Amino acid sequence: MTLAAASSAGESAAAGGAAVGDRPVAGRTQLGLLAVIVLAYLALAAGWNLSTPPFNNPDEPAQWNYVRFVADTGTLPVLRPGDDPAQLLDRLRSAHFPPGDSIDAIRYESHQPPLYYATAATLYKLTAWLPLKQHVEVVRWLSTVFGALTVLAAWRLVRTLLPAEPALALATAGFVAFVPMAINMTAAVENDGLSNLLVTVGVLGLLLWLQRGFAWRGAAILGLVMGLAALTKVTALVVLPLALLAAFLRYRRAGRDGEHVHPFGALLVAYAVTLLIWGWWVIRNVLTYGWRDPLALDINRLVVSQPLTGPLTVAAAQRFLTISFDSFWAQFGWMGIPVPTVYPVLALLSLLAGAGLVVALFRTFRSEALGPVRWAKAGEVLLVLAWPVLVAAS
């Protein structure tokens, strides 16, 4: 079987359904279950949105003030000392942000890249006539829509990666949709929802590039997605080294690949488009904060009072891993509402999910149908698994 034939067979399986064990999952059933997942996610996010008073989500006051500044002035804010008033924030947070108390001084997110805030500012202006509670709730819906699109993109990514494992794609969509903390954060005014969406779409694009190669247009579209991701959140820059890995894997898989752009030529095009979209933001930061701070990270460290953990000891590492696990799954409010009774259950669920992924990968690689493209598929899996590894490293 040629690589092209294998890819075509995989696409046919993705479109029409593939066997899971001895039971096929029809394409229409897959889409129906996916729709149920997305609708359930939207219902949960709506409930979270409506039941959470304004600014009682992490960093929401500072995020809101960024959106408001862009909407009111048509310009971008500058982060300055004093934009993280710790005593005021502690008082408001402990009182759950009483209606009528001003949050105007809380501006410590002003260093963030602007794409989400410019997008949200349009919705802010269109609904500025609403009372504050309803105004915040409407703007929160933008993050929720991005969250729903991320669920769909995650499903599509796994269907593209492992077309013979449709149940795994649905499980991935459910995982992305129903992590409680993810629902919390995508029912808030924040830029993570758009960042997650663009990075997921970017990784999907890299996977398609690895499988099929790119013409100039495809490379430019990939650069567009990467540029928009970089213009949303600094952590989204993870797509840039992933693109380099994808180019290397594509070169190893197809060489110069005469039917398409040379992999490293496509990479240069994608990087050039990324720089064209994102570069002005870097230049603006250099002019605003100095040549040593092109990503506005130093000014953030200067202004925002984040306590340091001290030396890396076994106890410090254990605490880091514990807090990371708890806050990934469920630690609500401003990290002040843990749910310790469910963490053991979530740990077991995490182990089962990891075991299920290992089984799915094992079943895929021992399949006789994979045959001569087994190593090519291994490269695709490596690309996708490198994503969370780089995120953890960053």
Helix content: 55-70%
Number of E-state strands? 4
Strand order of the largest sheet: 1-2
Helical element count?
A: 16
SSE succession: HEEHHHHHHHHHHHHHEEHH
Principal-axes geometry comes out as globular
Measured by DSSP, the beta-strand proportion falls in under 5%
Question: How far apart are the termini?
Answer: 40 Å
Helices and strands: which structural class?
Answer: mainly alpha
Weakly predicted, low-confidence segments: 1-24
Quick check: average pLDDT? 89
Question: Rg to the nearest angstrom?
Answer: 22 Å
Biggest sheet statistics: 2 strands, antiparallel
Please describe the structure with a list of short key phrases separated by commas or semicolons:
16 helices, 394 residues, two-stranded antiparallel sheet, 4 strands, 68% helix, mainly alpha, globular, 3% strand
Summarize the structure.
The protein has 394 residues and is mostly helical.
Commentary on this structure:
The chain has 16 helices and four strands. Helix 6 (about 130-160) packs parallel to helix 9 (about 190-210). With about 400 residues, the protein is mainly α. The protein starts with a helix and ends with a helix.
